[in-house]
Design brief:
The protein is globular. It has a two-stranded antiparallel ribbon. Strands 3-4 form a two-stranded parallel sheet. Strands 5-6 form a two-stranded antiparallel sheet. The protein contains 16 helices and 6 strands. The longest helix has 29 residues.
Length: about 450
């Protein structure tokens, strides 16, 4: 193509994406004509070349570690509820609130987190999230020390305060993957980067279900458990504070990143509420988040009615997460190559609905461990796979609204629906007078 009378450049593919660390030179194919200068025009070169930086993998690593740590702090007490209640001299309902506080805090604070991420950028948001996460983890540990001189009520209050700080950090962390993928990664890697960052949260849930019962077999081991979870949180905070130098790379990785611009927060909310495609995604995927929250929260209570042990319920929960991570990885790679976002969402939501129906049937059957485990695996495989793809699609269909706003509203929708679904499901249960197989304890509820 002719650029001017003295320069002709033949380009094989546009745009050219280069991998570099810091500043580096780029190569452009130049015609061997004697009238062609030996060095390409720098202004023209900027139009043809987009750089990607190796530093993007460090930023992604910090986010993944932070996301995983926050999830571990969220559900620290759930697998060892009895030991926690005994040590803190609290009821099981009070122990449950140490987890539920995350959902309660996320609903109002999620709007502020979305505004902050779009206004102040990735670096400040991630550093603030890491500090809140670390302070919360350390405060929980301090609240359980006997030599501090706190009585049982004050000790529980300090632990709850620590959990609340972690809950404040959660939206700052969970809303970040789509923003990071858009700013740091080229288009053919965005879905994969979003998948890796998003799936680090359920990985943290999986690790908690494994580590908490091992580390706190007795009630007096609760402080040790909290110290173990506080240590990685502190290291991650150091990595974020020292290692994150900017919210975005020096040059954009793609044309869409170069031209990206966010609408003001309130204006963005108005645009989203007028976007029919986004509203559908908001309601449908928000409902999906709520269903998975209910599954994780109520799984043990549902299975114990038919005589399934807590250990087996834990295995089903682990299979749900592990196969979900595998499904998300496979679907993320597929969508990165094909860009078939809508087709992937529709097919996986349909298969997820079938798996949900199948689980509602087999969980009421006795002595069907293989079937329950298999359906739990399929439920996670198809359901979790949707998460990073739906978040990426929410950004694509809501331009020019900021990534944090579009992804954050979906998460808030999921939290609101989670609370409503849990209240509704518990309201629909009936207490059973006779259930010979039940190992649920005094209160046996029918989930039919």
């Amino acid at each position: 193509m002719t650029v001017n009378t003295n320069l002709r450049i033949s380009v094989i593919s546009l745009p050219v994406i280069m991998e570099c660390e810091g500043e580096s030179s780029s190569e452009v194919h130049v015609d061997s004509s004697p009238n062609v200068p030996s060095k390409p025009n720098k202004d023209l070169q900027k139009l043809l070349v987009f750089k990607v930086y190796k530093r993007r993998w460090f930023v992604l690593l910090v986010l993944c570690l932070l996301n995983c740590s926050n999830a571990m702090i969220w559900l620290t007490f759930a697998p060892v509820a009895d030991q926690s209640a005994q040590y803190l001299k609290a009821t099981l309902e009070q122990i449950n609130w140490l987890s539920v506080v995350y959902m309660v805090v996320a609903i109002p604070f999620g709007f502020g987190a979305s505004w902050m991420l779009d206004t102040f950028g990735l670096r400040i948001t991630m550093i603030l999230g890491s500090w809140l996460n670390t302070l919360g983890a350390l405060l929980r540990f301090i609240g359980t020390l006997k030599n501090v001189g706190l009585d049982s009520r004050d000790s529980y209050a300090v632990v709850m305060t620590g959990q609340t700080l972690g809950a404040l950090a959660q939206p700052l962390v969970i809303f970040t993957p789509t923003k990071l993928a858009a700013l740091w990664f080229p288009e053919h890697q965005r879905a994969t980067a979003n998948m890796i960052a998003s799936m680090s949260n359920p990985l943290g849930v999986l690790l908690t279900n494994i580590l908490s019962p091992i580390l706190a077999k007795r009630s007096d081991q609760i402080p040790v458990l909290l110290l173990v979870y506080a240590m990685p949180a502190s290291i991650i905070c150091f990595l974020a504070t020292v290692g994150l130098r900017s919210s975005a790379p020096p040059t954009p990785p793609s044309a869409s990143a170069e031209s990206s611009g966010s609408e003001p927060f309130l204006q963005g909310i108005k645009l989203l509420m007028k976007n029919r495609a986004y509203i559908i995604l908001l309601l449908c995927f928000g409902s999906g988040i709520a269903i998975f929250t209910c599954f994780s929260t109520l799984l043990e209570q549902i299975l114990c009615v038919q005589g399934y042990t807590n250990d087996f319920a834990g295995v089903c929960g682990a299979l749900f997460i592990v196969f979900g991570i595998v499904g998300a990885a496979l679907l993320g790679i597929y969508v990165d190559k094909t860009k078939n976002f809508i087709e992937a969402i529709k097919i996986n939501m349909s298969l997820t609905a079938l798996a949900c129906i199948a689980f509602s049937v087999v969980c009421q059957m006795q002595e069907q461990k293989a079937a329950v485990a298999a359906i739990s695996s399929l439920f996670g495989f198809f359901g979790f796979a949707i998460y990073p793809i739906a978040m990426e699609l929410s950004v694509e269909c809501s331009y020019p609204v900021g990534e944090a706003t579009s992804a954050g509203l979906i998460f808030i929708s999921g939290q609101v629906q989670s609370v409503l679904y849990i209240i509704l499901l518990q309201g629909l249960t009936k207490e059973l007078a006779d259930s010979p197989l039940s190992i649920c304890g005094d209160a046996v509820l029918s989930w039919r």
